[in-house]
């Protein structure tokens, strides 16, 4: 599950880093459980992660835990001095120099709190003998729940209703809802997240069908799968994407695939922006073919999502247009962002690192 938008955060983090270079010489670090025990040091701990670092430290008095809110760079690596391993999460690259700086301190055990390893210089890591772990699954429910909630909101036209109520218009018509149990929900991708989404939609009483290039035996036995995407497009009132973006499925939702869908279809993308040709969706929203669109990920989100545009010119007219439509629900790649998910990312990364520094097998090693 490679996925809080790693590219996007990398951009934001680069800016923050360039603004905070002056702090590098004066480390602001905190630590627990000192006394010559084994030590784990964590970088770029956000405020919302801090309680879970403390929770882990409290449960592991045998390990000394230290952390900083600063990113791991060639210069900040020194904060981890005397540590046996590091816990990290950043979009900024783990360059050869950064890895070398850790190795110079004798640290080659690194545990990511996230999934993706594409920003690590893996050749250098290999040459230095790094052992790396990640957290591939932290809370499928976070994303599935968000997708399900937004699906139901589109069907009940809650954005239209909220706008009407705010303006003092308390009439019912014409804002009539569609019940989830009357929908056939087509799920593309039946991995960790897609499966939870299926359960939630079934809980509402929907008929669920699915397509995946790999068919899960249990789901297959229960008869969920259709044989082709075209069949799923033709039969579904709601279509929700839960597949990774690859070069083969870029813009899999395009004018051609939309033309195969039912009229008044609801489209849900809480997966990856690149899966959807946004212009084609806008055309279909304009023509009324698409009833509503849930968009937690956007193909041009890097540098736009997770930033405050309140007192600046909004940088993307197309996105602005979508945000202002009453049948489009835009969220800035926040489906994953729950206390449960963040807690799991922190605790699992520390568990992994603890195993590594004690020469035990970690739950989720990165094979590279
Ligand atoms: N919005 C968010 O905050 C957020 C957070 C985490 C993950 N995600 C996205 O959710 C996606 C799904 O995550 P997951 O943990 O369920 O992944 P997963 O690996 O458990 O499941 C993905 C499924 O997609 C299937 N698949 C791959 N390519 C396919 C294709 N072209 N057609 C049909 N099926 C295909 C795989 O066989 C697999 O069953 C991730 O890839 C990521 O893009 C979004």
Notes on the protein architecture:
Residues 154-335 form the D-isomer specific 2-hydroxyacid dehydrogenase NAD-binding domain. One of its GO terms (molecular function) is NAD binding. It comes from Levilactobacillus suantsaiihabitans. InterPro entries: D-isomer_2_OHA_DH_cat_dom, D-isomer_DH_CS, D-isomer_DH_CS1, D-isomer_DH_NAD-bd, D-LDH-like, NAD(P)-bd_dom_sf. The protein has a 6-stranded mixed sheet with strand order 1-3-2-4-5-6, covered by helices on one side. It has a 6-stranded parallel sheet with strand order 8-7-9-10-11-12, with helices on both faces. The chain folds into 2 domains: 14-138 and 339-357, Rossmann fold, CATH 3.40.50; 140-330, Rossmann fold. Helix 7 links the parallel strand 7 and strand 8. It is elongated, with a radius of gyration of 23 Å. It has helices spanning 6-19, 50-59, 96-104, 122-128, 140-155, 158-166, 192-203, 217-221, 229-235, 255-259, 278-287, 317-323, 339-357; strands at residues 29-32, 38-42, 63-68, 85-88, 109-112, 131-133, 184-188, 207-211, 238-241, 265-269, 290-295, 328-330. Helix 2 (50-59) packs across helix 13 (339-357) and helix 5 packs across helix 7 (192-203). It starts with 5 loop residues before the first helix and ends in an 11-residue tail after the last helix. Helices cover 35% and strands 15% of the residues. The protein is an alpha/beta fold. Nicotinamide-adenine-dinucleotide binds next to helix 5 and helix 7.
